[in-house]
Design goal:
Layout lengths: L4 E7 L8 E6 L2 E5 L9 H8 L8 E5 L5 H4 L2 H6 L7 E3 L1 H11 L10 H7 L7 H5 L7 H7 L3 H14 L5 H4 E3 L6 E2 L4 E7 L7 E9 L2 E7 L21 E5 L13 H14 L4 E4 L5 H14 L8 E4 L1 H12 L19 E2 L3 H9 L5 E4 L9 H5 L14 E4 L6 H8 L8 E8 L2 E8 L3 E4 L9 H11 L3 E5 L3 H14 L6 E2 L6 E4 L1
Parallel strand pairs: 3-4, 4-5, 5-6, 10-11, 11-20, 12-15, 12-16, 13-14, 13-15, 16-19, 20-21
Antiparallel strand pairs: 1-2, 1-22, 2-3, 7-8, 8-9, 9-10, 17-18
This protein binds zinc ion.
Length: 507
Amino acid sequence: MGQGLRLMFVGASGTVPGSHYVVSEGNNHYALDMGGIPQRNSVLENKISSVYPLPFNLKAVIATHGHFDHIGKLPKFIEEYGFRGPIYGTLPTLELLKQYMGKKAKFDRMTPILKNVVGGDIGIEEKQFLELEPRNPDTYDDALFLPSELRVENIKEWFDQGVPSSFSDMCNPINFHKHVPLTENLNFELLKASHIIGSSQVLLNYKGEKGINRILFTGDIGYQNCFFGEPEIPDSIDSLVFDSTNCDKDFDSDYDPREEIKQIINKTINRGGQAYFAAFTVNRMQMIMNFIKDLHDKKEIPDVPYFVDSPTGSKLFELYKNHSEFLEGVDDASFIINERYRIGKSSRKSKAIVKKSFPYVVISASGMFTEGRILNYLTKKGENRGIEDERNSVVICGYQAEEVGRTILSAKDSNEKVKVKITKGRGRNWSSNFYDVNAEVHELKNLSGHMYRDQAYDWIQKVNPKNLFLVHADHKTRKSFKDYLVERAFSGDNIYLPHYYSFHDIK
Ligand SMILES: [Zn+2]
């Protein structure tokens, strides 16, 4: 029987990005996700990086899926803080993480700070590590009750066990439903989450004073799209930590994105234009590719070039192809009509396509128009004038958090002329220009990898947890979803909206 388990809410508690939770039994601490915050949120980033745990607080990390806001901080923790414990996740999740690690996956190329850590003797001096203290560790450590001697003990333990020599040695791919022991009283398993390729829920089983306690972290959780069916529903859940991202709107059951893509492409090509799809590279891009391939195979759209112009998207294309066992309802995971039209690293090839003025369709990134090659298509000059050309179509494929995407979207239903400021560049060279939005603007719906409110309600009802924690959404969304649940079947006493550092103890 265990001495009690503590769930700590460190990230994505009142915000969407930066998912990070810590589960502790005594001095054994485990992280569930270690998400990054997009740079534009720098105030939040500073706040969170200053309270993130030091790596020697942690025995292991369990990653739910390979999105930046769930694993984006892990490379920093490995590289700069010297974390060398095991990382658990499905194979696609770990492969996505490896892409974020980039060249850093080879430890010998790491920064001097890290060399201090892994190059030291086993008899580590405490002061060596205290230099790595974040700016304000007190709040975090107080909450975890972990004195600094014990933190040093933890890292000594890694050295005794042998420091892994590469990132791959730290990775432990886990299949769904395999029980992985963490302590004598605590184990976990991964369950299907239907969000992106390889995404998982984490189910913790804890042997406490009153028997087995089951705690389910949904990670990001979706509900039936072109790649996935329903996520798994485990029974006897005591505490459910639920992704409420989309719980301020219902699913539009009268709307079919495949049909809209078909209409957009036919209309655009018929008037001699080009269609630009701005898609998020993980999952959204592959979904659009899948729809287009299916439409083309069935001859529902014309035979023009269909380009996928994205270095990241191109790499992920391989991941989807190699792990198609993680996809449902897809017979052929090649997604793309013609292999020749996939543009990876080559910016020369990309520039050549941008210059062409004949009718074509391109899927590119970023999905929020803040960077990436999509901007070269929108801002092009010559016979075809990108976003200023009324023959063309700009297709928005997801939520727009930034000004540029919101402005383009506003042109969709506006009778007034809309001008959009587009900023392009790299390094220190950035420039902005205004463009008239003359192209037809479309917005695809129902493609989200997160459950909509009505789906979430049904699903939570089936899980029927004793305690429900709503996370991964702003406070307004969580509050309105809580009200929605209470109006229907749930008791508000057992629904929590945790903030940073909130914790929940389990006996
Ligand atoms: Zn996600």
